[in-house]
Predict the 3D structure of the following.
Amino acid sequence: MSDVILPQGICLGHSDNGKTGVTVIMCKDGTVGGVDVRGCAPGTRETDCLHSEKAMDSINAIVLTGGSAFGLGSIDGVIKYLREQGCGHDMGVIKVPLVAGAVIYDLKDKYEFPTADDGYNACVNADKGGAVKRGAVGAGTGATVGKITGPMGAMKSGIGAATVTLGSLFVTAVTVVNAVGDIYNPDTGRIVAGARLPSGEFLNTKNFILSGEIIKAMRGGNTTLSCVMTNAKLDKLHCNKLASVSHDAFAQCIRPVHTDYDGDTIFALSKGEETVPDFTMLSIMAVEAVNRSILDIFK
């Protein structure tokens, strides 16, 4: 697997129980962030604070988690960990960590969802450092794709990561893919993962829906989540623009995407001092990084 680079000051950790889990992207001293929520069924926390017009100018962690709305409770453990570390916005009497997060729907057992302890443990693991783990770990533990006909036709998914570099400038994407749609390689136009027929061949979800069969189909839990990180020095406005344009990768790799059954969300973080000669160039790097992080899961 190719190396995945994180901006200095940002660390990543997972925690899971073999069925579902949580992934934390942590920046103890704070960093500039942005977000773009496109899916029609999102489960999120504190995403409004990341919008360009809001007062908060930095964030301490991003949480990607399983467990649907129940999984948002894992963020409490992240906040506890950061508070113990003395991190957060100084409010005079206390420092308040700012943590945003989003969930995928991977519920298979009503009692299995990430808890505050899982969020805390993910922070502990992040602080240990080391290579970024990918596959069926953390928030990607219970992820699947191609669920238009139900779980029997779906394929296992997970969490992927990739870095795109240009000189000393880089963009890294970490993506949890739990889509109702199929996964395409945008370079070949071919399906690499998705709903399957009993023969093992791909069903082609887009064509299946266009045939009118969706009214008979079972729609399983969905959502794709990503966090793009760069060592470029960006303001809050451009972090939000980077999150927005990165959704191009979702559209290139996942069909259909941003449906009524998905909560597709992309976060963006800027931590570094690299000058961006042209924002369009950085945008293309981000889209490519997200594309590669999605395909990384299905190698």
Q: What stands out?
A: Helices lie at 68-71, 74-84, 116-127, 205-210, 236-245, 247-253, 279-296. The mean pLDDT is 94.
